[in-house]
Amino acid sequence: MISISLCLIVRNEEDVLARCLDSVNGIADEIVIVDTGSSDRTKEIALSYTSQVYEFEWIDDFAAARNYAFGKAACDYILWLDADDIFMEEDQVKLLELKASLSPDVDTVSMLYHLSKDESGVVTNRLRRNRLVKRERGFKWIGAVHEYLEVYGVALATDIAVTHASTRHDSERNLRIYEQRLAQGEELSPRDLYYFANELRDHSRFEKAVLYYNRFLHSKKGWVEDNIAACGKLADCHAALGDQELALEAALRSFQYGSPRADNCCRIGYYKLQSGAYETAAYWYEAALRAPKQEEAWSMQNTSCSTWLPHLQLCVCYDKLGQWLKAYEHNEIARAYRPDHPSVLHNKSYLEGLLVQESTMEQTSNLSFS
């Protein structure tokens, strides 16, 4: 059986740290916690779980802090988490099974990352990340912000999931770091151009986000999944700025980089629906349902766009086209995914009334008179 070092970098995590560490109880053989300047009870809580608590002077560089933590690990493999991540019970069982059976030939193990769930507990946003790596390989983190772990060798993809369970977020931190780097005259890498644009978009600075998404795409050096995602986010920025034509162009631009993705098909469907082109909108929502599923994708996946959402929108399209039975059928499929969604419940009541009325009219028209 392999041994596992859990490595975390933390700062003011008193509200979530114990929850995270409890979720790896009996799994991690050692816990390494690197504090980057907490002013709350974080270090006190950390010390109640492990004596390996270190301080690292924060230099606006996440990779530097994570590499420092990795350098303190001593077990066969290193598992990394953030303090607001947890393993759900079923994933704890899977991780223990993996620990007992993992071949020492494996250099890196990837796991799913569940970022959000709907009211029924169904995952709506997810991606895949390298989570467990062989220590002796000396893998390094790269990037001051939105850092990534550079790995190579024998890889294993698992269905074990890490669940992100954040209670708060320093929304200004990453944007501040990027702007400081630019102010110092640093030239951002293509990857940083993309993530800086994301930060600008998240802060509703849409015009500047458009500028940086275009710089990223024009560099022609981006990862293909980031290229596709950038087109969709660029479309959202144009839509927020009130330019539906440029929004449509940006969504269509994504097809240059790969097969149509469900989220961009939904975007195009939405733009057409807003303009009253209901048949065209229906085509694009159907295309979203036909789009290849990205089950093993490393990029962000909005599962709503390939499941219930297109059916809900198709219900709207077919209602507008007067095809109420077809609209009802799509709403019922959406209801199977989201049984308590207010729009789904409203549509069900509304369409059942129309169908009853339509049936009554048909019966009346078929009466025979003597």
TrEMBL record:
It comes from the Bacteria. SUPFAM superfamilies: Nucleotide-diphospho-sugar transferases (SSF53448), TPR-like (SSF48452). InterPro entries: Glyco_trans_2-like, Nucleotide-diphossugar_trans, TPR-like_helical_dom_sf. Residues 5-124 form the Glycosyltransferase 2-like domain. CDD domains: Beta4Glucosyltransferase. This is Beta 1,4 glucosyltransferase. It comes from Paenibacillus glycanilyticus. The lineage of its organism: Bacteria, Bacillati, Bacillota, Bacilli, Bacillales.
